[in-house]
Design brief:
- The complex is a heterodimer of chains A (115) and B (113).
- Chain A is mainly beta.
- In chain A, 0% of the residues lie in helices and 55% in strands.
- In chain A, strand 4 and strand 5 form a beta hairpin.
- The N and C termini of chain A lie far apart (41 Å).
- With 113 residues, chain B is mainly beta.
- Chain B contains no helices and eleven strands.
- In chain B, strands 2, 4, 5, 6, 9, 10 and 11 form a seven-stranded mixed β-sheet that branches.
- Chain B is globular and about 35 Å long.
- The relative contact order of chain B is 0.33.
- Classes of the chains: A mainly beta (115), B mainly beta (113).
- The interface between A and B is medium-sized, with 28 and 25 residues.
Chain lengths: 115, 113
């Protein structure tokens, strides 16, 4: 089955710096890669996603890049703000075949942005 | 308001006492799933359902049961809870399948003593 590894497990940055979180996946048939943000005591919420037919996607200060050959994808947050402090999860899933419908998450990254 | 509703939010029980955590969505979503969240392990999928009467095992299904008799409801059943099932549980739904954005419920904090 799919295995998703996420690094680093914790990340501490100064306000205004950039933050990068990386995930690798094992199933070459995976084609959907979402990122979720979970604030303390809250539910996870989608912040950005990317599909395998796209190499990069941006939404204001957030971007995701995908390297299908190397089977890894990354979340980039620029000009970080204290409200970006949260746990971030990556995930991977496939559109068909065996395990269709399964969504595998990474272990999570605790991001702390210091004012 | 479009939402996924889980109940209860907190539950303390004893080993072996059957319990059910309810999940309901009002968005007419096809796909529903359950996850448990444990420190350092991220979110792990327990079961998922692509449609009514269709359920499949996720990565950690042992000790859990689910049913999907109606489109809007997807209860999680622990027939004989054990302490290793102490965790934070999330229900989620999406309009089509695991390849579309998930809407999560607010979570259920379960403690089994």
């Amino acid at each position: 089955g799919e295995n998703v590894e996420q690094h680093p497990s914790t990340l501490s940055v100064q306000e205004g710096d950039s933050a990068v979180i990386k995930c690798t996946y094992s199933d070459s048939a995976s084609n959907y890669f979402p990122w979720y943000k979970q604030e303390l005591g809250k539910r996870p919420q989608l912040i950005i996603d990317i599909r395998s037919n796209v190499g990069e996607k941006k939404d204001q200060r957030i971007a995701v890049t995908l390297n299908k050959t190397a089977k890894h994808f990354s979340l980039h947050i620029t000009e970080t703000q204290p409200e970006d402090s949260a746990v971030y999860f990556c995930a991977a899933s496939r559109a068909g075949g065996t395990s269709y419908g399964k969504l595998t998450f990474g272990q999570g990254t605790i991001l702390t942005v210091h004012p | 308001e479009a939402q996924v509703t889980q109940n209860p939010r907190y539950l303390i029980t004893v080993t072996g006492k059957k319990l059910t955590v309810t999940c309901s969505q009002n968005m007419n979503h096809e796909y529903m799933s359950w996850y448990r969240q444990d420190p350092g392990l991220g979110l792990r999928q327990i079961y998922y359902s692509m449609n009514v009467e269709v359920t499949d095992k996720g990565d950690v299904p042992e000790g859990y049961k689910v049913s999907r008799k109606e489109k809007r409801n997807f209860p999680l059943i622990l027939e004989s809870p054990s302490p290793n099932q102490t965790s934070l549980y999330f229900c989620a739904s999406s309009w089509r399948d695991g390849n579309s954005p998930l809407h999560f419920g607010n979570g259920t904090r379960l403690t089994v003593t």
